[in-house]
Amino acid sequence: MRVISGEKRGLPLKAVPGSTTRPTTDKVKESIFNMIGPYFQGGLALDLYAGSGGLGIEALSRGIERTIFVDQNRKAIETIKLNLKQCSFEESSEVYRNDADRALKALIKRELAFTVIFLDPPYAKQALVNEMSIIADFHLLEPSGVIVCEHANTVSLPDRIQNFSKKKEETYGDTVISIYAFD
Protein backbone atom coordinates (compact mmCIF):
# COMPACT_ATOMS: atom_id res chain seq x y z
CA MET A 1 0.00 0.00 0.00
CA ARG A 2 1.36 3.40 -0.97
CA VAL A 3 0.50 6.97 -1.92
CA ILE A 4 -0.35 6.74 -5.63
CA SER A 5 0.11 10.32 -6.85
CA GLY A 6 0.72 13.93 -5.92
CA GLU A 7 3.14 15.52 -3.47
CA LYS A 8 3.89 12.28 -1.54
CA ARG A 9 3.77 9.90 -4.51
CA GLY A 10 5.37 6.53 -3.84
CA LEU A 11 5.58 6.78 -0.04
CA PRO A 12 4.65 3.46 1.59
CA LEU A 13 1.70 3.31 3.99
CA LYS A 14 1.20 0.81 6.80
CA ALA A 15 -1.94 -1.32 6.98
CA VAL A 16 -3.89 -1.77 10.20
CA PRO A 17 -2.59 -4.93 11.94
CA GLY A 18 -4.97 -7.88 12.02
CA SER A 19 -7.83 -8.86 9.73
CA THR A 20 -10.59 -6.55 10.95
CA THR A 21 -9.78 -3.75 8.48
CA ARG A 22 -9.98 -4.13 4.69
CA PRO A 23 -7.64 -1.60 3.05
CA THR A 24 -8.62 -0.08 -0.29
CA THR A 25 -6.29 -1.56 -2.90
CA ASP A 26 -3.98 0.75 -4.83
CA LYS A 27 -5.86 -0.08 -8.06
CA VAL A 28 -9.23 0.90 -6.56
CA LYS A 29 -7.74 4.00 -4.91
CA GLU A 30 -6.30 5.17 -8.23
CA SER A 31 -9.66 4.58 -9.92
CA ILE A 32 -11.49 6.57 -7.23
CA PHE A 33 -9.27 9.60 -7.74
CA ASN A 34 -9.52 9.35 -11.51
CA MET A 35 -13.32 9.51 -11.08
CA ILE A 36 -13.38 12.46 -8.65
CA GLY A 37 -10.32 14.56 -9.43
CA PRO A 38 -7.71 13.54 -9.90
CA TYR A 39 -6.26 16.61 -8.12
CA PHE A 40 -7.67 19.32 -5.86
CA GLN A 41 -7.10 23.03 -5.33
CA GLY A 42 -7.49 23.01 -1.56
CA GLY A 43 -10.65 21.99 0.24
CA LEU A 44 -11.63 19.83 3.20
CA ALA A 45 -11.97 16.02 3.19
CA LEU A 46 -13.62 13.61 5.60
CA ASP A 47 -12.41 10.00 5.80
CA LEU A 48 -15.20 8.62 7.99
CA TYR A 49 -14.15 4.96 8.23
CA ALA A 50 -10.50 5.78 7.83
CA GLY A 51 -8.85 2.42 8.57
CA SER A 52 -5.19 3.08 7.70
CA GLY A 53 -6.04 6.57 6.41
CA GLY A 54 -5.11 5.73 2.83
CA LEU A 55 -7.94 7.60 1.09
CA GLY A 56 -7.62 10.77 3.17
CA ILE A 57 -3.84 10.76 2.82
CA GLU A 58 -4.15 10.32 -0.94
CA ALA A 59 -6.48 13.33 -1.00
CA LEU A 60 -3.92 15.40 0.95
CA SER A 61 -1.16 14.34 -1.44
CA ARG A 62 -3.36 15.42 -4.36
CA GLY A 63 -4.02 18.92 -3.03
CA ILE A 64 -6.77 18.75 -0.39
CA GLU A 65 -5.83 21.30 2.28
CA ARG A 66 -7.10 19.44 5.35
CA THR A 67 -8.51 15.99 6.14
CA ILE A 68 -10.46 14.78 9.17
CA PHE A 69 -9.94 11.07 9.86
CA VAL A 70 -12.41 9.08 11.96
CA ASP A 71 -12.31 5.44 12.99
CA GLN A 72 -13.52 3.63 16.09
CA ASN A 73 -10.72 1.03 16.13
CA ARG A 74 -7.76 1.90 18.38
CA LYS A 75 -5.26 0.09 16.12
CA ALA A 76 -6.60 2.01 13.12
CA ILE A 77 -6.10 5.34 14.91
CA GLU A 78 -2.50 4.38 15.76
CA THR A 79 -1.88 3.36 12.12
CA ILE A 80 -3.40 6.59 10.76
CA LYS A 81 -1.12 8.63 13.02
CA LEU A 82 1.95 6.63 11.89
CA ASN A 83 1.02 7.09 8.22
CA LEU A 84 0.40 10.83 8.68
CA LYS A 85 3.80 11.17 10.34
CA GLN A 86 5.45 9.18 7.51
CA CYS A 87 3.94 11.65 5.01
CA SER A 88 4.49 14.77 7.18
CA PHE A 89 0.74 15.50 7.13
CA GLU A 90 0.18 15.85 10.89
CA GLU A 91 -0.39 19.61 10.62
CA SER A 92 -3.01 19.27 7.89
CA SER A 93 -5.11 16.61 9.58
CA GLU A 94 -7.31 15.82 12.56
CA VAL A 95 -7.70 12.26 13.85
CA TYR A 96 -10.59 11.11 16.05
CA ARG A 97 -11.48 7.79 17.58
CA ASN A 98 -15.25 7.66 17.33
CA ASP A 99 -18.08 5.79 15.63
CA ALA A 100 -19.51 7.26 12.44
CA ASP A 101 -22.83 8.39 13.92
CA ARG A 102 -21.27 10.32 16.81
CA ALA A 103 -18.59 11.74 14.54
CA LEU A 104 -21.20 13.12 12.12
CA LYS A 105 -23.10 14.71 15.03
CA ALA A 106 -19.88 16.35 16.25
CA LEU A 107 -19.13 17.65 12.74
CA ILE A 108 -22.64 19.13 12.47
CA LYS A 109 -21.90 21.27 15.54
CA ARG A 110 -18.74 22.57 13.86
CA GLU A 111 -20.74 23.68 10.79
CA LEU A 112 -18.20 22.28 8.33
CA ALA A 113 -18.77 21.60 4.64
CA PHE A 114 -16.54 19.06 2.91
CA THR A 115 -15.16 18.98 -0.62
CA VAL A 116 -14.99 15.18 -0.56
CA ILE A 117 -16.36 12.61 1.89
CA PHE A 118 -15.10 9.03 1.87
CA LEU A 119 -17.51 6.41 3.24
CA ASP A 120 -15.85 2.98 3.33
CA PRO A 121 -17.51 1.15 6.23
CA PRO A 122 -16.95 -2.50 7.11
CA TYR A 123 -19.10 -4.36 4.60
CA ALA A 124 -21.13 -6.05 7.36
CA LYS A 125 -21.99 -2.75 9.07
CA GLN A 126 -23.07 -0.50 6.23
CA ALA A 127 -25.49 2.34 6.90
CA LEU A 128 -24.56 4.37 3.82
CA VAL A 129 -28.06 5.60 2.97
CA ASN A 130 -28.63 6.80 6.54
CA GLU A 131 -25.21 8.49 6.69
CA MET A 132 -25.76 10.25 3.36
CA SER A 133 -29.16 11.43 4.59
CA ILE A 134 -27.46 13.00 7.63
CA ILE A 135 -24.86 14.60 5.34
CA ALA A 136 -27.68 16.05 3.21
CA ASP A 137 -29.86 17.18 6.14
CA PHE A 138 -27.02 19.08 7.81
CA HIS A 139 -25.27 20.43 4.69
CA LEU A 140 -21.98 18.64 5.39
CA LEU A 141 -21.07 18.57 1.68
CA GLU A 142 -20.21 21.76 -0.18
CA PRO A 143 -22.26 22.42 -3.34
CA SER A 144 -19.56 21.15 -5.73
CA GLY A 145 -18.46 18.31 -3.41
CA VAL A 146 -18.59 14.54 -3.88
CA ILE A 147 -19.30 11.53 -1.69
CA VAL A 148 -17.32 8.37 -2.41
CA CYS A 149 -18.98 5.16 -1.17
CA GLU A 150 -17.06 1.90 -1.17
CA HIS A 151 -19.31 -1.10 -0.64
CA ALA A 152 -19.75 -4.80 -1.35
CA ASN A 153 -21.07 -5.83 -4.75
CA THR A 154 -23.99 -7.46 -2.91
CA VAL A 155 -25.19 -3.97 -1.86
CA SER A 156 -27.17 -1.92 -4.34
CA LEU A 157 -27.38 1.78 -3.52
CA PRO A 158 -30.27 3.86 -4.91
CA ASP A 159 -29.71 6.32 -7.77
CA ARG A 160 -30.94 9.15 -5.51
CA ILE A 161 -30.51 9.78 -1.80
CA GLN A 162 -32.28 13.00 -0.88
CA ASN A 163 -30.67 15.74 -3.02
CA PHE A 164 -27.68 13.59 -4.04
CA SER A 165 -27.65 11.55 -7.21
CA LYS A 166 -25.33 8.74 -8.21
CA LYS A 167 -22.96 10.14 -10.83
CA LYS A 168 -20.73 7.10 -11.40
CA GLU A 169 -20.49 3.51 -10.30
CA GLU A 170 -17.68 1.06 -11.01
CA THR A 171 -17.18 -2.54 -9.87
CA TYR A 172 -13.77 -4.01 -8.99
CA GLY A 173 -14.21 -7.67 -8.04
CA ASP A 174 -16.32 -7.77 -4.86
CA THR A 175 -15.93 -3.99 -4.33
CA VAL A 176 -18.17 -1.30 -5.82
CA ILE A 177 -17.38 2.42 -5.86
CA SER A 178 -20.43 4.70 -6.04
CA ILE A 179 -19.89 8.45 -6.47
CA TYR A 180 -22.65 10.85 -5.38
CA ALA A 181 -22.97 14.60 -5.82
CA PHE A 182 -25.69 17.23 -5.82
CA ASP A 183 -27.96 17.30 -8.88
Automatic annotation (TrEMBL):
Residues 1-24 are annotated as: Disordered. The keyword Transferase applies. Keywords: Methyltransferase, Transferase. Its EC number is 2.1.1.171. Transmembrane segments: none annotated. It is an enzyme of class 2 (transferase). Pfam families: Cons_hypoth95. Residues 1-10 have a biased composition (Basic and acidic residues). NCBIfam families: 16S rRNA (guanine(966)-N(2))-methyltransferase RsmD. This is 16S rRNA (Guanine(966)-N(2))-methyltransferase RsmD.
